[in-house]
Each structure stands twice: as structure tokens, then as C-alpha cells.
């Protein structure tokens, strides 16, 4: 694969219970012009071995990098340095995609030439069952969105997650050193979103839940600590 349309970055850390479901949801995509970059961030369970297994079975699809544990920002930055694709998608290793996620993103990019496509998510439980309806949309309906509106929503604390965006690769500040922020565990996406959103010019909002967010009781976002 020389230059795929999509590069999917999946940071992995101690998610042996859910990882195969995540990776199988990518393999099940109806659109096939993509690569998957797995960053094993020092897992101490079998997650690293699962990554290697998928890379060995699907060498044209998966690439793996094993690294010492430094946190989510570090893992995503490592993944960005390995990207070969034109657009980048992020998928957390305990979450999943619907089988038409990349197909829908391809349709929007092809017809609108957008720099960034934003989309919705739905919640699933530990076993993959749906929890309620999809989250409410940030805008009224699908369509192009002005940059000013995007920045306003970001400043209000919305649209932060990298997982609910597909971004043109050249927008990322690849050479910027983020090591001072590696210890941040919550709302860390905003640090990486702002440079991308500021640089981009064409935004499209897709009012469809393409991402399946798992309510995992052991995840960082589900373990609030007051201090």
C-alpha cells in the first residue's frame, strides 16, 4: 500500500478484553483504501501480542509500534509520525466503528473536498450493546460549517475529541514537541485539535453516529479523581 486515503491511528494500552472487537470493526469496513497504525503504549497485558497477531495475519493492513508507556498524547504523536495516508482518523482501542464509517467519510471528502469531517457517536456497553440513542448533534443538520463556528464550539468545550473527526494529514503540526503535556489524562485532545482546526479551511459536519463509544468502567474518562 503506497499512499492510502485513510490512516487509522489506534493507541493501545491494556485493553485485551476489547481490542479484537475494535480491530475487527476496522477490518469489517466496506471501504478498503486504508492502513491501520497500532501504537502499543507499554501494555502489560496481552494487548501487545494481539497487535502483533493482527499485523502478522494482515500485514498489508496493520503496522505496529511498541513503545514505553507515556500516555495517550505520546501514543497519538508516535502514530502521526508513521502516517502514509492522506487523511487521519483516530480510534480508541476499547471503542468500535460501524461498518460504513470510512465509506461515508470517503463520500463526503470526495464530494466536498473538506479538510475536516466531523461526525457523531453512539454509546455502547461493555458487551457492545447500544445504550440509548446517538448523542445529540452540535449543529442542526449535515453540511458545511464555517470556521468561526468550529472555533466557537471548541472554546465552549465542544468538538474536542479527535476520535469524532477525520482530518487531512498535512494539517497536523507533526514536528511540534508535545512531551511537556504527556502527563495530561483528561481533555488532552483539545491541545492537538486547536492547531488542526486553526489551519483547516473547509469543514463538513455529518449528522450521523459513525463512532461507537464504549462505556468502559476502567477507562481514564470513567475514573474521575477530584485532585
Give structural notes.
- The chain has one domain: Spore Coat Polysaccharide Biosynthesis Protein SpsA, Chain A (Alpha-Beta Complex).
- The chain has six helices and ten strands.
- It has helices at about 20-25, 45-55, 70-80, 100-110, 145-155, 190-200; strands at about 5-10, 35-40, 60-65, 85-90, 95, 115-125, 130, 145, 165-170, 205-215.
- Strands 1, 2, 3, 4, 5, 6, 7, 8, 9 and 10 form a ten-stranded mixed β-sheet that branches.
- α1 (about 20-25) links the parallel β1 (about 5-10) and β2 (about 35-40).
- The longest helix is centred in the middle third of the chain and has 12 residues, at about 100-110.
- Mean pLDDT is about 90; it is low at about 220-225.
Summarize the structure.
The chain has six helices and ten strands. It has 227 residues and is an alpha/beta fold.
The CATH topology is Spore Coat Polysaccharide Biosynthesis Protein SpsA, Chain A
Q: What is the beta-strand fraction?
A: 25-35%
Mean pLDDT metric? 91
Measured on Cα atoms, how large is the radius of gyration? Answer: 17 Å
Question: How would you spell out the order of helices and strands?
Answer: EHEHEHEEHEEEHEHE
Please give the alpha-carbon distance between the first and last residues. 46 Å
CATH homologous superfamily placement: Spore Coat Polysaccharide Biosynthesis Protein SpsA, Chain A
Amino acid at each position: 500500500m503506497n499512499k492510502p486515503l485513510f490512516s487509522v491511528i489506534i493507541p493501545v494500552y491494556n485493553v485485551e478484553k476489547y481490542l479484537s472487537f475494535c480491530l475487527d470493526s476496522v477490518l469489517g469496513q466496506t471501504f478498503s483504501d486504508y492502513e491501520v497504525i497500532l501504537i502499543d503504549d507499554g501494555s502489560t497485558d496481552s494487548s501487545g501480542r494481539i497487535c502483533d497477531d493482527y499485523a502478522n495475519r494482515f500485514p498489508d493492513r496493520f503496522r505496529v509500534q511498541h513503545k514505553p508507556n507515556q500516555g495517550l498524547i505520546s501514543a497519538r504523536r508516535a502514530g502521526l509520525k508513521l502516517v502514509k495516508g492522506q487523511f487521519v482518523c483516530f480510534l480508541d482501542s476499547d471503542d468500535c466503528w460501524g461498518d460504513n464509517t470510512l465509506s461515508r467519510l470517503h463520500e463526503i471528502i470526495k464530494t466536498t473536498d473538506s479538510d475536516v469531517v466531523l461526525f457523531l457517536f453512539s454509546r455502547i456497553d461493555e458487551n457492545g450493546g447500544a445504550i440509548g440513542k446517538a448523542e445529540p448533534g452540535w449543529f442542526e443538520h449535515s453540511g458545511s460549517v464555517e470556521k468561526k463556528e468550529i472555533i466557537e464550539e471548541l472554546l465552549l468545550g465542544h468538538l474536542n475529541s479527535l476520535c469524532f473527526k477525520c482530518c487531512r494529514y498535512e494539517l497536523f503540526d507533526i514536528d511540534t514537541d508535545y512531551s511537556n503535556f504527556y502527563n495530561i489524562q483528561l481533555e488532552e485532545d483539545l491541545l492537538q485539535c486547536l492547531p488542526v482546526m486553526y489551519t483547516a479551511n473547509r469543514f463538513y459536519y455529518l449528522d450521523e453516529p459513525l463512532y461507537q463509544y464504549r462505556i468502559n468502567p476502567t477507562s481514564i474518562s470513567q475514573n474521575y479523581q477530584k485532585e
